[in-house]
Amino acid sequence: MAPLGDSVMRRVLVLVALAAFALAAGDADAAKRKGKGKRPTAEPAVQERTPHETRDDNTLCNGGMMVTADDQIRGCSALLKRRLTRDAKATIFYNRGNAYVAKNDFGRAISDYTEALALKSDYPQALFNRAVAHRVSGNPQSAVGDFSAAIALAPGDADAFTGRGMAQAALAKHQEALDDFNRALTIKPDHMTALVQRGHAFVRAHRWAEAITDYSAALSISTAAVEAIYGRGVAKVYAGDVASGQADMTQAMVIDSGVTARMTTQGIPPPQIRSAGSFEPAKATPQLPPTIAPPQPPTAVSPVVESTPTAAPPAVAQPAADPSPAKVDEKVSTMKPIP
């Protein structure tokens, strides 16, 4: 075979180089196509996301053990930008109000409960929670009004009667408070908070034996009821059983060093043991830690039909661009908290 000329050799080398380049480019394109939409394994996308980013807004707004108050507020706020029914928006305002209570932001909580009630006037949970927020923020008169409205909607609610009794006591309406505690205990005889609060009412009325009976009944339900231990001690001291009373008070203070101050704000200061003089209860607004109604059970949302009571946890309604409003199953839990 005759040797190739220089020009022919150069052409062959160029063609070989071009073929190699095309093969390499083709392999690169294929690799890109296979890896399209995938993250490099060196980027742990799930681990880098915050809890808020990995859960939908509806789940966050419903709250729960693993949802922070801030995340619940963000979830609810995002849902409020969507096109929803009035009842669904009322539920969202209610849930966000609960989150603000968890942050001790009672002003915003009251505002959200008010928005919920503007959308749904027959909403006893929102009335109850707004009443609690009013009471713990130092507005017992408004609390009485909201508790009364909640009772009108749910006359068998022992928690609402107990809460109203506590607000009445803060207004120094001691007989009205006692009447409310009696009504709560008629509905639910083992209502722990009502027993403790009626014990307080009996102490303020100097009815020592009845106070001791109520405190002891509360302690038979829970031995950790610190205010019942302390209140029983106060009642025992004034009833003449000084040693036993002081033992109860000491036990309560060992469990909770702040119990004396808390009881004093409720009109039950530590007794002054003296030969003369009578017990005069202080009159101050109670400053109790708030207990709020639980979030409503998950609310099923569908853009077409009403959900059934056994529907799965709620799906988020479509954004505002969706021309049809979402419909919501407004089934409400009958469970109520202790005020």
What this model shows, in words?
- 59% of the residues lie in helices and 1% in strands.
- By secondary structure, it is mostly helical.
- A two-stranded antiparallel sheet has the order 1-2.
- The chain contains 16 helices and two strands.
- The protein has two domains: 50-139 and 292-339, Serine Threonine Protein Phosphatase 5, Tetratricopeptide repeat; 173-282, Serine Threonine Protein Phosphatase 5, Tetratricopeptide repeat, CATH 1.25.40.
- Residues 18-25, 27-52, 274-291 and 297-338 have low confidence and may be disordered.
> Which CATH top level class of the largest domain fits?
Mainly Alpha
Rough outline: elongated
The helix/strand order is HHHHHHHHHHHHHHHHEE
Annotation, overall tally of beta strands = 2
**DSSP strand content:** under 5%
Number of domains: 2
Average pLDDT: 77
The Cα radius of gyration reads 33 Å
Q: Low-confidence segments, ≥5 residues, pLDDT <50?
A: 18-25, 27-52, 274-291, 297-338
End-to-end CA span: 105 Å
Largest sheet: 2 strands, antiparallel
Topology, element by element:
Blueprint: H1 6-34, H2 45-48, H3 51-54, H4 57-62, H5 69-79, H6 86-102, H7 106-119, H8 124-136, H9 140-153, H10 158-170, H11 174-187, H12 192-204, H13 208-221, H14 226-239, H15 242-255, H16 259-265, E1 301-302, E2 327-328
Helix pairs in contact: 5-6, 6-7, 7-8, 8-9, 8-10, 9-10, 10-11, 10-12, 11-12, 12-13, 12-14, 13-14, 14-15
In short:
This protein has helices at 6-34, 45-48, 51-54, 57-62, 69-79, 86-102, 106-119, 124-136, 140-153, 158-170, 174-187, 192-204, 208-221, 226-239, 242-255, 259-265, and strands spanning 301-302, 327-328.
